[in-house]
Design a protein that fits this description.
The complex is a heterodimer. Chain A is of the alpha/beta class. Chain A contains eight helices and 13 strands. In chain A, strands 7-8-9-4-10-11 form a six-stranded mixed sheet, sandwiched between helices. In chain A, strands 1, 2, 3, 5 and 6 form a five-stranded antiparallel sheet that branches. In chain A, strands 12-13 form a two-stranded antiparallel ribbon. In chain A, helix 4 packs across helix 5. By secondary structure, chain B is an all-alpha fold. Chain B has a domain of 29 residues. Classes of the chains: A alpha/beta, B mainly alpha.
Chain lengths: 264, 342
Amino acid sequence: MTLKDKHIILKTEDLSIGYASKKAKTIIASNINIELKKGELIGLIGANGIGKSTLLRTLTHVQNPLKGHIFLNGKNISEYLALDLAKAMSLVLTEQMASKNLSVFELIALGRQPYTNWLGNVTTEDSNVITKAMEQTNITNLKHKKCFELSDGQLQKVMIARALAQDTDLIILDEPTTHLDMYHKAYILKLLQKLAKETNKTILFSSHEIDLAIQLCDTLIVMTKNKVVTNQPCNLIKEGVFETLFPKDLITFNSDTGSFRVKK
Amino acid sequence: MNTPNTYKISFLVLCLLLIICFFANISLGSASIPNSGILKTLIGNTENSFWKNIIIDYRLPKAFTAVIVGSGLGISGLMVQTLFRNPLAGPFVLGITSGASLGVAIVTMGASLFGGVLAGIFISQWSLVIAATLGSFLVLMAVLIVSIKVRDTMAILIIGLMFASITSAVVSVLSYFSSADNLQQFIFWGFGSLGNLSWNELLILFVLYTIGIFLSILSIKTLNTLLLGENYAKSLGVNLKKSRLIIIIATSLLAGTITAFTGPIAFIGLAIPHITRQVFNTSNHKILLPAVFIIGAIVMLICDSIAQLPNSDLTLPINAITSLVGAPIVIWLLVRKRKMMF
């Protein structure tokens, strides 16, 4: 590992993603080279069906890449043991949890599972990590509530706290702002920005909130039909990447305000 | 709000209740024996051989069987409900009960079809147990092989139900062609019975049951992680295939052997976990597992005491009693709380 790579948490080399069956390979995107640095908030944006989820599934080792490599902390992700991967990368998924009968504390405590003993006992140290995660996400007052009593926005904060408690360098969130109102969309993304700065963790999320992502992210990964571009938001605006995101018949990108407008 | 302290009190009360129910169960029965006589017999301080026979050879093994059946079925129900994320699941969903009944059906009703000499060998006390064990074991193996190949847990659930339909169809065909006597024997097995176990049989049941309980305790951590869903469990470093296999083996060992020895006992596996969740108001398996154990044993002991119809010569089918007693409890609990959680 060279000195320059030290601050790089996740790196892909010539990555191709898609689905392989016995008969044929379906390549969804190829030639992906991205570098996620420590303490950065990174947004992954792109149109529906462009392959955001497939990319996230590949980065999180749920499915294998068709070609190329993914390095997490300098080590190829396919060489990780399941438990070690759990200590290096935590997830916030779109799927609903199976049971909402857990209390907020119990749920966040599940984030400590890679560290606890065979019975899952929470030690004082685990408790401290959990308490800190709740403070960082402003949910200490919800500690004893049951998850089915929470609003969608509160629940999302709890899930983020759970990922924090897992104590990993990288947190990946799959569309964390769906189902939320405009205020809470901004709130959650702002919270992620704060967490990346305060905890020096790398946070990657996929989202359709392009306007907010442009304002809040350090880096954006933009997936278009032909290529995957990574850069700072202001540079991407200059390059005119956002104009190529969608078909041009309905909405246009205004590079002065950094937002989309409906055509009159 | 439940704190560790209120849990402790609840557990203490439940343990007391379990002990009371255990002794009440022993002291109640068709033959009326005074309490002092029961105590004397238990500590081996009596000359009354009639009491000895009844208590040591019948009531005591029956009470132990009730504890094993209630706790074992309850815990296997708890595990499948969490594994399949389905509050309606019970041990039967893996096709275990129907596998056992297929085995018994082949022995009781198929024997006459296969001819005279074999029939004599086939129909004995042990043959039913062996047949039921083999039947549930075969269905279990089929489900296991499928579960290794299939990734989706819901698919396993449906495949288990399909196996159940196939076996029950075979059972129907067998009963259509069998004689009235054989059919009756099969139906009697279907009523379930706790009282047919000798100490030797109880020992075998206990050994297998202990292995099942041991595996379920090992699964506590995984079961809690599964409350988040399978993908989250994976992201927390859980080896899904391995843990799923252990949970299915534990469930099958518990439900399979219990069904083999006592016949199908309805309802306990489905209802005990729900009753326990309502009492303890938690989904944490570290609390639920021991609680299901105790509550299952208590409910089974009570059901058995009712089935014996104290001071009469009649014994009702235990299978009917468990449903008659348990179903209203679950309905009442759910109507009161209006939420079906798991």
